[in-house]
From TrEMBL:
This is N-acetylglucosamine-1-phosphotransferase subunit gamma. PANTHER family: N-ACETYLGLUCOSAMINE-1-PHOSPHOTRANSFERASE SUBUNIT GAMMA, N-LINKED OLIGOSACCHARIDE PROCESSING. InterPro entries: DMAP1-bd, Gtb1-like, Man6P_isomerase_rcpt-bd_dom_sf, MRH_dom, PRKCSH. Residues 236-248 have a biased composition (Basic and acidic residues). The keyword Signal applies. The lineage of its organism: Eukaryota, Metazoa, Echinodermata, Eleutherozoa, Echinozoa. It comes from Strongylocentrotus purpuratus (Purple sea urchin). Transmembrane segments: none annotated. Residues 182-282 form the DMAP1-binding domain.
């Protein structure tokens, strides 16, 4: 029954496209939904669990922090296809993975949500993405290292540890030797606090362990790293059923009725235009 319903819907979608190509209806009048995932109408496994097309994070990504010139990357995404998977990096937001397969249930998932910086030797070393999809007893996570390049490019994806990914992102924004230094981006008060801490370390008034802990506190106050006890805010979930998710026969029938109504509207618009002499002369 579900298979028959889905086939009917596709029949009407194709019919709408043909009407659009043959007639003069504008794109604004045709409100069709794009299909972004590959489909396979051959050996379909109707008993297999449905793979949701929409990805829902469990936490919110952290606000932008770091060198101000990297803000140009916010809102942009960069992809790389490697080993039959498409990886997509949206700096300071999330990292996703999409299986490039025609099988019935290709994997699409979230590898990580942006949380903080990995700071090494006074340098913004990598962006850290955590709280991705579950993977056994843990969640997937990604470390994205920034390197100098002639263009913005996701260059490499690896998985050195199961479910822990390492990416290399090249960009001309980090080619200057001081472009990723932490100290210049701190406030005057934070710089003064760091200077005092360096003096205490030099006078051996604080241990290396204490120095690292206090320095981490300075980075916390700047928003570059999270407090180990701090958890990201939970994501705001949209509980409405996506119209393309046929989770039941009822949703399939509802979508069928909507598409059928759109087809009838398109037909009437085409007929009215064909009967209008002014339109036919255009």
């Amino acid at each position: 029954m579900a298979a028959h319903c889905v086939h009917k819907i596709w029949f009407y979608v194709i019919q709408a496209i043909l009407l659009f190509e043959q007639g003069s209806v504008s794109s604004e009048e045709v409100r069709m939904r794009l299909v972004e995932e590959p489909i396979n109408l051959g050996n379909q496994q109707w008993n297999a669990p449905a793979q949701p097309k929409s990805l829902f994070p469990t936490v919110q990504f952290s606000n932008f922090t770091g060198p101000p010139h990297l803000r140009r990357l916010v809102g942009r995404c960069f992809s790389l296809v490697e080993n039959d998977y498409k990886y997509e990096l949206c700096p300071f937001q999330n990292v996703t993975q999409h299986e490039q397969s025609l099988r019935w249930n290709p994997y699409s998932g979230i590898l990580g949500i942006y949380e903080e910086w990995d700071i090494v030797n006074n340098t913004f070393q990598s962006m850290i993405f955590r709280d991705g999809d579950t993977c056994g007893q843990k969640n997937r996570q990604v470390k994205v290292q920034l390197k100098c390049g002639t263009k913005h490019e996701l260059e490499h994806v690896g998985e050195p540890v199961t479910c822990e990914y390492a990416m290399v992102f090249r960009t001309p924004l980090v080619c200057h030797e001081h472009s990723l230094l932490v100290y210049p981006n701190l406030s005057e008060d934070q710089q003064a606090e760091w200077n005092e801490l360096e003096g205490r370390l030099y006078r051996e008034e604080v241990t290396q362990q204490g120095y690292k802990k206090m320095l981490h506190t300075i980075f916390e106050s700047a928003g570059y790293v999270l407090n180990p006890k701090q958890r990201p805010l939970p994501a705001k979930q949209d509980h409405e059923t996506h119209p393309d998710d046929f989770t039941s026969l009822d949703t399939c029938k509802d979508e069928y009725r909507k598409l059928n109504a759109e087809i009838e509207t398109l037909k009437s618009q085409l007929e009215s235009r064909q009967n209008d002499p002014d339109t036919n002369n255009l």
